[in-house]
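Changelog excerpt

This revision adds worked examples to the README so contributors can see how folded entries look when concatenated. The first example is reproduced verbatim below.
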Amino acid sequence: MKNNFIFKHEHKGFTLTEILITLGIIGVVATMTLSPLTKKYQDKIMLTQVKELMQK
């Protein structure tokens, strides 16, 4: 009976490690997502500039 009380504790929140790991994962996913979007945006700007130059 005594051993049951040793391991019983309430979990009231997240540990610092859990929060840091979660933020790290979010950062990696955001980087993987934003990189292709930025490239597409830059390609679109370049295409628009080339079209404008050709019209002049």
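The second example, added in the same revision:
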Amino acid sequence: MASRRGGVRGLLRDVARGREIDGARLAAYLRRAASRAGHVRIEGARCRGPVDLRKARLEAHLELVDCHFHDELLLADAVVDSLDLTGSRLAALHADGVRVGGDLVLRGTRIGPVPAAPVPLSDPGTDGDRVTVPRRVPEDAAGAPLGLVAARIDGGLVLERAELGGTGTWALFAPRVTVGDSLRAGGLRSRGALYLRDARISHSLLLDRASVGAVDATGLRCDGGFYADWGFSCAGPVRLRGAEVGRVVTFHDALLAPPAGAAVLTRLRTPRLRVDFRARPAGALVLRDARIGSYVDSPAGWPAPGALDVEGLTYDRLGSTAPVGVRERLAWLARDAGAGAGSFEQLALSYQRAGDERSARLVRHARERRMRRSERLPGRVWGAVQNVLFGYGYAPGRALAWLLALVAAGSAWFAAHPPAPAGGGPRRSWDPVLYTLDLIVPVAGLGQRTAWDPAGAGRAVAVLLILAGWLLATAVVAGASRALSRT
């Protein structure tokens, strides 16, 4: 039974002897001690009953280290200089609207009951454009064991090696939280999800080696970096929709595990993004309308076909942790079944900025082939002809090869079957090569076509060469004009 009697010395004596103390008694002690001393430390306390410090002004540095709170610690709208709960166990910590002048330290702290399995987090649907509908959670219905709604922490928020439990979807519920330093959660363990929507973090958010159910940091503003790397594991989606991160967003060596591990980075803004996952994500990689300076990935971490969304993604530089050729990069882009012309052009521009004009042409050629697939039959046929003859304007050597082949074939035929001279004109010396060129090239005007009059099979060959020449010229002009207008 929790001890309710005794003054200050009695409480400290009960704590030292390992006796349970009442939550109301502890709350009263902390209010009184904080008003008299700038530093209050209690170690190893066992407390039963809620510790209600709501709206309290605790102008002291509180340390409640290695304590066991069987019930809630209530700090909503309280003011405290700093709070250290290192190594403590709590049923719940509800601190919505709390003001912490220094650090809030929850290093190695266990909060809430640990569920038997990860709590699933899924999106309710899409808006018809493959973009997941944003989910805003009612703040009065979250039920998270660690609540920091609209809290303001002037120092850092430390969750290193903490364990967050709970039986609901959310383990940490902290929309609109403001952190003056970094949110350090290396090694955090949480079966539930972290809700950091519209959070403001002055430095970095560090989740290295953390294992969580999901992360929703939609609308995050972070002046430093977002580090979900070096063994970070997540069984649900990591959402950074509309987030702005000042330095880097990195998932290096991260594992987006089953059943629903995914990265939803729609409209993300950051100078550098690393998505070189440890292995292929269980779910999708959504980069729609993101604005990235430098994009780095790894072939081993590319999402499955159909699980990539890069429509509207822009980036200045494209890199990989392993050598990736242009054809492999096109195979990566093909994993987005809905990739449009803009996605191909963005890839071509990245090669062009790097001075690789050949790769840029190959990408634009692939773009034309991809776009023609959606046209009607006549357009697809004409596109196939342009592709074979001239590569849509991006393979000029192919047109030259066709021209040489036609000239060689025609010259060989007419060398073996010379036509008779046409009557009524000056007689010209016979040259099968010039005659074939005059037939094939529509605007050659070499005078050979009118000087000779083929008959029978020779006439049919001449007509075929004329038609082939016009077809080749039309395809070349169409392809060249398209290439010039696009570049």
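Reviewer comment on example two: Residues 124-134 have pLDDT under 50 and may be disordered. Residues 8-120+142-377 form one domain.
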